[in-house]
């Protein structure tokens, strides 16, 4: 019988605590640590004050293709890919760092959930690694966006260059000064024409 390393167990507990604080589901914790399910549940209850949510992990690639989710997923994945290419970190550490940067760039109002949850971000990386999804260049802006694997790339247009009509209707006017300049310019152009 092999004896478990106390140092490895401490690392796993620290990793599990960080993942739980970022909103990881139990299945992700089980996959990324060597801790038993019972210990993970107890740790989750201790940190969150409630048991982990039940249910299956997301398994459909279609979620990542809708306009808003695609933009957020692409932003996260580009940061993740940069970290992997620069060799600053690997595996779940790269997912955690990229996700924290994503949250910095897309702050979540109090009481709301981010568009891209940590478990979905982790699932996205697994889908790309398995060849179900890929990062594809937009033929208009040249940015890299998440797309279904094996689709013709020459005609791919991202959802920023070609948003669906409902996306424009849903957009709220922002109070942020940086967001107001394009809106003000559009209003001035309409007045001139």
Using brief descriptors, characterize the structure shown.
single chain, 193 residues, mainly alpha, two-stranded antiparallel sheet, 8 helices
The coarse silhouette is globular
Number of strands: 2
Helix content: 40-55%
- Poorly predicted regions: none
Query: Termini separation (Å)?
Result: 80 Å
Determine the number of helices (DSSP H or I, runs of at least 4 residues).
8
How would you state the average pLDDT, rounded? 87
Find the structural class using helix and strand composition.
Answer: mainly alpha
What's the main sheet like?
2 strands, antiparallel
Strand order of the largest sheet: 1-2
What integer value in Å does the Rg equal?
20 Å
Order of helices and strands: HHHHHHEEHH
Number of separate domains: 2
Q: Roughly what fraction of the amino acids lie in strands?
A: 5-15%
Binding site for Zn(2+): 138, 141, 158, 161
GO molecular function: DNA binding; zinc ion binding
Main location: cytoplasm
GO cellular component, one term: cytoplasm
Brief digest:
This protein folds into two domains: 6-48; 61-170, no CATH class. It has eight helices and two strands. The protein has helices at 6-21, 26-32, 37-48, 67-85, 91-105, 118-129, 165-170, 177-192, and strands at 133-137, 144-148.
Describe the overall structure.
With 193 residues, the chain is mostly helical. It has two domains: 6-48; 61-170, no CATH class. The chain contains eight helices and two strands, in the order ααααααββαα. It has helices at residues 6-21, 26-32, 37-48, 67-85, 91-105, 118-129, 165-170, 177-192; strands at 133-137, 144-148. The protein has a two-stranded antiparallel sheet. Strand 1 (133-137) and strand 2 (144-148) form a beta hairpin. It is globular. The mean pLDDT is 87. This is Flagellar transcriptional regulator FlhC. Zn(2+) binds at residues 138, 141, 158, 161.
